[in-house]
Amino acid sequence: MTTTITKTVTRICLPLVILFSISLLLAGHNNPGGGFIGGVMFASVIALTYVVYGLDHIKSFFDPDWGNWFGFGLLLASFTAFAAIPFGHNFFRSAVEFLHLPFFGEIELVSAGLFDIGVYFVVIGSLLFIFKSVGDDR
Amino acid sequence: MDSFTAITLAVFLPFVLAGILPMVGKVLKNRIGWYASAVAFLSLMLVAWVAPAVIHGEDIHGSISWLPSVGIDLSFYGDGLSIMFGFIVSGIGLIIMSYSNGYMSTREDLPRYYQQLLFFMGSMLGMVFSANLIQLFIFWELTSITSFLLIGYWRNRPLSVYGATKSLLVTATGGLFMLAGFLVLQSMTGTFDIPAILQNESMIAVIKGHELFILALLLILIGATSKSAQGPFYIWLPNAMEAPTPVSAFLHSATMVKAGIYLVARMHPIFSGTDAWFILVSGVGIITMLAAGFLAFRQTDIKGILAYSTISQLAYLMTMYGYTTHQHPGIGVAAASFHLLNHASFKACLFLVAGIVAHETATRDITKMGGLRKEMPVTFILAVIAALSMAGIPPLSGFLSKEMFYEASLEMGQALGGSFTYMIPALAVLGGVLTFAYSIKLIDGIFLGKRPAHGLPEHIHDPGWVMILPTALLALLIVLFGLVPSIPSHYIVGPTAGSILSETADLHIELWHGFTPSLMMTIVTFVLGILTYTRYESIAAWQNRFNSRHPMISVNYFYDAAVDNAKNITSGFSSRMQPGTVKTYVTALLLLLLVLFIIPVIQISTDVIPAGLNFDIPPYEAILFTFMIIAALGAALLPRYIPAVISLSGLGYLVSLLFIYLSAPDLALTQVLVETLSTIIFLLAIVKIPQRFRERMSTSVLTKDILISSAVALTVFILMINATQGIVSPFESLSHYFIENSLPLAGGHNIVNVIIVDFRGYDTLGEISVLCLAAFGVYNLIHSRGEGE
After folding, report:
1. ipTM strictly over 0.95?
2. Which CATH fold would you assign to the domain B579-728?
3. Beta-ladder partners of A99
């Protein structure tokens, strides 16, 4: 699979796909997308890079601990679930706020969006954690 | 800040601050123990903040809605009893964590140690302040789990692991019995709220007359006795001594083992005043008190003696709380509450002394010690104060509460009349005699006599102030409570007894109260105690002989046999249930699916295939379906892995095309991505397995496989037909609710996403937790291959 064509395509795709995955994540509340899809997209492009360039080669300069990613995601998601309690609401109560900014127009802030970001990190982290464990195995 | 907030903070701050402890540990390094001490101090201050109101007779009760539909709330209740326990838990916690700074070597994994201690402290505080039975149960089991972790702190010592497992098996099983008891109690009263039951006299009368009364009492008492190591459940506590000594002082003498006593005291207003309460609670208490006091003689490990003495002292408390008659439901309540406080102080102090001695001499074997008074004068004085308090020597606090124990025993004996008039006080004195003997043994064996010629390090000295100061603080309390008993009786014991008896207890504890019968009993105790001590060694030798001749007469023998049998049975069962071939699991799953799908379809509609089906398939879809069938056949029939996998993922992409055609962009996107990722993982794995996978299958296996897959396919087909165009559903579809409320309630246009992150957010949280667990599972599977069998 490590032909010049796949290498070049992967190199071009990598930043585009990552940007697209972030846009999927942020657009999720009103348009197709969301944390899960965005996360899987991010994970697949990293996985593709691992396959095309070789896990050992990528690890020599880019080797995050994916375990930390899903740990952070789970923490963030639980935090948003608990955050309503000190304000006297039920567990998992979400809040919506509309914000008017110059240039950007109306921006919607949803606490569920924070939860979605948690999901995003959990999906990326756990998929790549599994992927790396399988790939590292000799 | 109101009192309810203070209690909530006192319970949850240890959890939160323990959560960030590893991060703080990176900054503070070896001084992390002082951070943990500060957290304990904070909890102590919060409890102290609440205390004045409670002492003045005001009860604190507040709740946060949790599961209101089933009557479970996060609610806290502060009365005299919980405040006393709150003080003991956070105060001893502070002392233990400060002491640990000197005791624990800096080579140990300190963050893990202090984190678990703080988790324990939070759970224990949560338990004693719980106003809800289910919440009490949750915190109760949390203390069992943290105790398990702390006993097994030295993970590579087999004895630690054995002790940890034993304590978890015994206390957690007991906890389940207790939960069953709570459910029975709820079925009688209709509520889980503890104060609602306690403050409602007609409800208590209903419980006492109910036919399930005995069942509820028995189940709850099994929980209490297993936690407090009473009766046959005592076996876990001696093995729990494998924990670091500060942990033993904190959990296994002062606080966690008193959880059972707390439960007995908490349930006292509900169940006491009945014959069953006296027979069960006092009966178990008296037997355990005598048996454990007697068994302590055989121990040569200092902590072993202390463990059996703890069991025996807890049995005192059980006995006292069990003293009850119809007229006076709480004869021994004040005595028990005072002794509880005293036991927490002198026993924790003795454990800390044992820790100091073991730390300096590098042994815990009392037969190798002696004559240490010259080398460790300060430790010697502290040990004498604590041990004499346990033996009941005036003017120390233990003397006062033991006098009260004798008084209560006399009163109980008189109330019962007949031969009990003398029997109950006599048994109480016997318990006191045994206590006296082993208390003297501790001092004599370690500090008095001659220093053995060899076996001890050459230079032994008192430890630094970090270990001396917390121990001395406890010794100071022992002396103070003995000399000025009005302080504990007015501020702590009075309110505690008052809250159990639901009346203001008029309590006068005085050091000198004339030549009463109980003083006579104390003098008899001392005389007999000294006589017993002269025969100490021969009693111990007799016990050893008996034990080696009759190994079967021991609870531990039956425990070990039961655990061995359970291990054999489960390993046989799991090797049959999990042969390791994926096909077996998939077959089982599919057959279950078949059953679960068929039953509702048959129940809802009589025609399995509804009449008047619409089989109009648009040409575009028809083309798509043709390709899908080809791809599916390819995946099943192609002889090599890579073509088969490619064919399978081709099928997946075709399905996502279908989703687009049916205008479900979210689903299509997800399908494409998941398909891509699984294909990549497949291809990675394929490199490592043999390329030809069509080993010859016998016709019967092939027929069976084809039958199962066709049956499953047919079921799914019928199900889909029924779901899309068959019968009218008996339920109203949920989708209308989501379509109408997605924007106004959650502010989102994408209904699928809103359902995932908002309406069904709880599910999603569960799912992503499972995803993390699956990641760990894969990691462990890959990294544990080749280890063990």
Report:
1. no
2. Four Helix Bundle (Hemerythrin (Met), subunit A) (1.20.120)
3. A107
